[in-house]
């Protein structure tokens, strides 16, 4: 959430109250059968309806039955839906909060609505992830493969244009295209390695290798940018030279390259939430700017002033350097173990407190990056007289729920405490 005015209900996991629910089949001790805990957002008792199938115990003691007996009834167990604002326009905010900044209030309630929607849809996370993979998997694969093929063709086209014209700016774009080609190979290799886990050699998978591949990509791009700046500086310091004629055909080829890059950039934009596609989206976006600017500097340097061409190459090199250095910096922190966003942790807490009525409260909830994905650590508190079997089963089902319900969780660990 934000530091702005808080919603009328406290965050999930802070309020806990006790209730009584029918428990049979020897799942808990007599004391715990009359002292089941339920977490609510309002701090009052929401007992499980005895007439509901959720409140009826069955024979047997499997994990699935334990979870069924003690799960919350309804799709909105904390009744968060009533806190969702249907009208968050600035006009309505001015009516409801005349003394507050209506723009800030609109932003606050919009974020709150989005967070509530995420909470209420959290049970469908696994199903939605499977549907998303089924629908978009081939499209993502096409984006990566098409980017590789286009980078290969464009390198040949741009190298021809650079050699034909002798323009440093076009050499800069050709060098950029070459590094794109090399980096595309790196991305393809790391993506394939990440998708083929070796359980015995790498127990938690090899998904972090994709992040390492992205960092290698960035290092290659910054290296070529530094070299371009050095060579352009030497040319600029060497003084004027005879300008060559302006060749039309190479420039047409560069125009074709810009069109192809633009088409791929638009396509990758719609799938940029996938890490590999996001990198290619940034690459194509930067290439459009680089190629347009390089083409303009080449024409001006040939027709107007000789020094415009090397200056353009230096500016292109600086653009490449800054862009990819910033991208590398961002991904390095993912390997270090940067914490997950606050909204993500709030969603985890909501799933934990609504997982089982015997969870009294959440003591600790951590989520931190391991590459593009997360490691999650949750400490839950249960009754001190709850049997070991019950606490073990609750924590195990919670761990499986977190790992199965979130596509970006590598490992979730659940530790039960007593209170």
UniProtKB/TrEMBL annotation:
<keyword id="KW-1133">Transmembrane helix</keyword>
<feature type="compositionally biased region" description="Low complexity">
    <location>
        <begin position="1"/>
        <end position="18"/>
    </location>
</feature>
<dbReference type="InterPro" id="IPR036837">
    <property type="entry name" value="Cation_efflux_CTD_sf"/>
</dbReference>
<feature type="transmembrane region" description="Helical">
    <location>
        <begin position="314"/>
        <end position="336"/>
    </location>
</feature>
<dbReference type="GO" id="GO:0098771">
    <property type="term" value="P:inorganic ion homeostasis"/>
</dbReference>
<dbReference type="Pfam" id="PF01545">
    <property type="entry name" value="Cation_efflux"/>
</dbReference>
<dbReference type="GO" id="GO:0016020">
    <property type="term" value="C:membrane"/>
</dbReference>
<keyword id="KW-0813">Transport</keyword>
<dbReference type="InterPro" id="IPR050291">
    <property type="entry name" value="CDF_Transporter"/>
</dbReference>
<dbReference type="InterPro" id="IPR027469">
    <property type="entry name" value="Cation_efflux_TMD_sf"/>
</dbReference>
<feature type="transmembrane region" description="Helical">
    <location>
        <begin position="211"/>
        <end position="230"/>
    </location>
</feature>
<dbReference type="GO" id="GO:0008324">
    <property type="term" value="F:monoatomic cation transmembrane transporter activity"/>
</dbReference>
<feature type="region of interest" description="Disordered">
    <location>
        <begin position="72"/>
        <end position="94"/>
    </location>
</feature>
<keyword id="KW-0812">Transmembrane</keyword>
<keyword id="KW-0472">Membrane</keyword>
<feature type="region of interest" description="Disordered">
    <location>
        <begin position="1"/>
        <end position="60"/>
    </location>
</feature>
<protein>
    <recommendedName>
        <fullName>Cation efflux protein transmembrane domain-containing protein</fullName>
    </recommendedName>
</protein>
<feature type="domain" description="Cation efflux protein transmembrane">
    <location>
        <begin position="146"/>
        <end position="332"/>
    </location>
</feature>
<dbReference type="InterPro" id="IPR058533">
    <property type="entry name" value="Cation_efflux_TM"/>
</dbReference>
<feature type="compositionally biased region" description="Polar residues">
    <location>
        <begin position="29"/>
        <end position="39"/>
    </location>
</feature>
<feature type="transmembrane region" description="Helical">
    <location>
        <begin position="142"/>
        <end position="163"/>
    </location>
</feature>
<dbReference type="GO" id="GO:0030003">
    <property type="term" value="P:intracellular monoatomic cation homeostasis"/>
</dbReference>
<feature type="transmembrane region" description="Helical">
    <location>
        <begin position="250"/>
        <end position="270"/>
    </location>
</feature>
<dbReference type="InterPro" id="IPR002524">
    <property type="entry name" value="Cation_efflux"/>
</dbReference>
<feature type="transmembrane region" description="Helical">
    <location>
        <begin position="169"/>
        <end position="190"/>
    </location>
</feature>
């Amino acid at each position: 959430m934000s530091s702005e005015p808080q919603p009328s209900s406290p965050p999930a996991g802070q309020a806990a109250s006790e209730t009584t629910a029918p428990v049979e089949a020897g799942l808990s001790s007599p004391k715990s059968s009359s002292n089941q805990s339920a977490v609510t957002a309002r701090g009052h008792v929401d007992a499980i309806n005895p007439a509901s199938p959720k409140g009826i115990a069955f024979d047997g003691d499997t994990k699935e039955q334990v979870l069924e007996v003690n799960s919350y009834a309804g799709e909105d167990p904390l009744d968060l839906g009533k806190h969702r604002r249907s009208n968050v326009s600035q006009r309505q905010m001015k009516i409801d909060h005349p003394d507050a900044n209506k723009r800030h209030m609109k932003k606050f309630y919009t974020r709150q609505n989005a967070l509530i929607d995420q909470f209420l849809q959290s049970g469908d996370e696994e199903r939605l992830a499977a549907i998303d993979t089924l629908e978009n998997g081939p499209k993502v694969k096409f984006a990566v493969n098409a980017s590789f093929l286009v980078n290969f063709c464009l390198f040949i086209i741009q190298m021809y244009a650079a050699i034909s014209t002798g323009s440093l700016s076009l050499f800069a774009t050709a060098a950029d295209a070459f590094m794109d080609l090399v980096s595309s190979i790196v991305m393809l290799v790391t993506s394939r390695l990440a998708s083929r886990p070796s359980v015995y050699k790498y127990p938690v998978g090899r998904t972090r290798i994709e992040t390492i591949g992205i960092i290698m990509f960035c290092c290659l791009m910054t290296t070529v940018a530094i070299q371009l700046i050095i060579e352009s500086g030497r040319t600029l310091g060497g003084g004027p030279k005879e300008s060559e004629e302006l060749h039309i055909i190479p420039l047409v080829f560069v125009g074709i390259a810009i069109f192809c890059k633009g088409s791929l950039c638009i396509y990758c934009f719609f799938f940029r939430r996938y890490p590999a596609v996001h990198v290619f989206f940034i690459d194509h976006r930067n290439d459009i700017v680089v190629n347009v600017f390089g083409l303009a500097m080449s024409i001006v340097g040939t027709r107007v002033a000789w020094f415009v061409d090397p200056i353009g190459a230096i500016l292109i090199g600086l653009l490449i350097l800054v862009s990819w250095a910033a991208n590398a910096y961002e991904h390095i922190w993912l390997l270090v173990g940067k914490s997950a966003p606050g909204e993500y942790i709030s969603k985890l807490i909501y799933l934990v407190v609504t997982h089982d009525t015997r969870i009294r409260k959440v003591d600790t909830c951590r989520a931190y990056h391991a590459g593009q994905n997360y490691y999650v650590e949750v400490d839950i508190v249960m009754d001190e007289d709850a049997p070991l079997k019950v606490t073990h089963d609750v924590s195990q089902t919670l761990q499986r729920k977190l790992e199965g319900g979130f596509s970006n969780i590598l490992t979730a660990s659940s530790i039960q405490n007593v209170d």
